[in-house]
Amino acid sequence: MRNKRKISFIAGIITLVIAISAFTTQPVQEDNKPKNLKVLSKKISDEELTKVMRGFNAALGVKCGYCHAPKANGEKGMDFASDANPKKDIARQMIKMTNKINKKYFNKEYDGAIKNIACETCHNGAASPKVIQSTK
């Protein structure tokens, strides 16, 4: 009788532990957070960051390796936090420039729509925008 109580008690504890762990979510590890964001919001979600990066890909007709450096030690993939590729800093400067232009000139509502410029305004799917020479 006494052994049955011990076994029942232990089984109850094990069941309780399993039930609690099944309904408890693990905290998000900080390692999953984007690192080295200097222009984009540090509070940006992974999904929103991916959306922004895909927008850059489409606007410039490039892939991730255009701005991001490859991982060190011959590993596959990109080291997204690295600043080794100088084009990443150029991209940051372009984002700042676009934000400044939009704030100063285009952050107004016209006919119910907010007009602004974006990467594709000048790049049109090309890594380097075409420069139009002034005829002055």
UniProtKB/TrEMBL annotation:
<dbReference type="InterPro" id="IPR003158">
    <property type="entry name" value="Photosyn_RC_cyt_c-su"/>
</dbReference>
<protein>
    <recommendedName>
        <fullName>Photosynthetic reaction center cytochrome c subunit</fullName>
    </recommendedName>
</protein>
<keyword id="KW-0732">Signal</keyword>
<feature type="signal peptide">
    <location>
        <begin position="1"/>
        <end position="30"/>
    </location>
</feature>
<comment type="function">
    <text>The reaction center of purple bacteria contains a tightly bound cytochrome molecule which re-reduces the photo oxidized primary electron donor.</text>
</comment>
<dbReference type="InterPro" id="IPR023119">
    <property type="entry name" value="Multihaem_cyt_PRC_cyt_su-like"/>
</dbReference>
<keyword id="KW-0813">Transport</keyword>
<keyword id="KW-0408">Iron</keyword>
<dbReference type="InterPro" id="IPR036280">
    <property type="entry name" value="Multihaem_cyt_sf"/>
</dbReference>
<keyword id="KW-0249">Electron transport</keyword>
<keyword id="KW-0349">Heme</keyword>
<keyword id="KW-0602">Photosynthesis</keyword>
<dbReference type="Pfam" id="PF02276">
    <property type="entry name" value="CytoC_RC"/>
</dbReference>
<keyword id="KW-0479">Metal-binding</keyword>
